[in-house]
Design goal:
Number of helices: 8
Largest sheet: 6 strands, mixed
CATH topology of the largest domain: Rossmann fold
CATH class of the largest domain: Alpha Beta
Strand order of the largest sheet: 6-7-8-3-9-10
CATH architecture of the largest domain: 3-Layer(aba) Sandwich
Oligomer: single chain
CATH superfamily of the largest domain: P-loop containing nucleotide triphosphate hydrolases
Radius of gyration: 25 Å
């Protein structure tokens, strides 16, 4: 088995009486794009800074590339960091910014020139060598920050919400660029983000964090399709929740009473985090269907449309189910000939037992 590039064991971090990180146990594989995802204040940036060496852990151990990082300062670790603010020097040109770290290491001028040219080319800034940093766009400054980090050839690149200051279109473009760049250079990227879509789009694996703890680590597909808890399910994408009560188990199945849907028999594997403590059922909006005309489904339930949100390619309906006070959301792709329902319309909502998750 390949040794992880980063291994965190029992990591704690206290600021006075406040515990920012609690028992962090995590392996990050060599060459993967790994994301730390969670709401503001959950500890993800503290964890990233602990890996970088800008924070000292209160307990536990951290190994990078098989070596303990106890007492190793940030500038001696095989990592480099791209900050949210980019932190490039405004009085320097692009090439001077990229060369800064190499000059600090007193490398030969010929080698510096070659490595700077390679890094600038890598991030798509050919011809910008002499451009003043203050004359760059936000996206270009972000590329300079990346080049400056990559030119030092770290084993791990740490990214602290580097795209948060960009507008939506440029952010999406840079997400693709970062993923392409990571594949090209083959080093481990660790990204901190609070943007679920960004994490799902870019990552090989994601650690979801709440209150200084890791709730679940998995691939984007597993996190979205099989979240282990209601907390994760609610944070990753959109999820409808219905109260549920476990009745009996038999073999590989469980009988459950679900709000508005009645008694159902579900496979135990749909209790993605185990059966103990399950008290709700989750279903994604795209797993529900507004049935039109003679359309049928495995199951269906009568509902009333209470809100309509039209997004061009998709329409999101809030619908009121019997015996449930709060509406649930159904998402429908706007295909040719499919009409958009109005508020107050009666609707038949189609669903399948296979799309339901038992959650705690």
């Amino acid at each position: 088995m390949t040794q992880p590039i980063i291994r965190l064991s029992g990591l704690d971090k206290f600021y006075g009486d406040f515990q920012a990180l609690s028992q962090i146990n995590l392996d990050i594989k060599t060459g993967e794009f790994f994301s730390l995802l969670g709401p503001s204040g959950c500890g993800k940036t503290t964890l990233l800074r602990s890996i970088a060496g800008f924070e000292t852990s209160s307990a536990g151990s951290l190994h990078i590339d098989g070596q303990s990082m106890d007492g190793v300062p940030a500038n001696k670790r095989p990592t480099n960091m791209v900050f949210q603010s980019y932190a490039i020097f405004p009085h320097m040109s692009v090439a001077e910014n990229v060369a800064y770290g190499l000059k600090a290491r007193k490398l030969p001028k010929v080698e510096i020139k070659a490595r700077v040219a390679e890094a600038i080319d890598m991030v798509g800034l050919q011809g910008f060598d002499e451009r003043a940093s203050h004359a760059l766009s936000g996206g270009q400054r972000q590329r300079v920050a990346l080049a400056r980090a990559l030119v030092l050839k770290p084993r791990v690149l740490l990214l602290d919400e580097p795209l948060s200051a960009l507008d939506k279109k440029l952010r999406e473009q840079m997400q693709s660029e970062l993923r392409r760049l990571q594949r090209a250079v083959g080093i481990t990227f660790v990204l901190v983000t609070h943007d679920q879509e960004e994490a799902l789009t870019m990552s090989d694996r994601i650690a979801v964090m709440f209150d200084g703890k890791i709730e679940q680590v998995a691939s984007p597909q597993i996190l979205y399709g099989k979240p282990s808890t209601r907390k994760v399910a609610a944070f990753i994408g959109m999820m409808n929740f219905l109260d549920a009560k476990i009745m009996t188990t038999s073999g590989d199945n469980v009988e459950v009473e679900v709000q508005s849907l009645g008694k159902l028999t579900l496979p135990l594997k749909q209790a993605t985090g185990g059966l103990d403590g399950c008290n709700s059922v989750g279903v994604r909006p795209e797993m529900l269907t507004i049935l039109m005309g003679s359309q049928t489904s495995e199951r269906e339930i009568e509902a009333e449309v209470t809100e309509v949100s039209y997004y061009g390619d998709m329409t999101y309906y809030d619908v009121k189910l019997p015996a449930k006070e709060d509406p649930i959301t159904v998402s429908m792709r706007n295909t040719a000939g499919r009409k958009v329902l109005e508020v107050g319309a009666k609707a038949r909502v189609g669903w399948s037992t296979s799309s339901l998750l038992l959650l705690k």
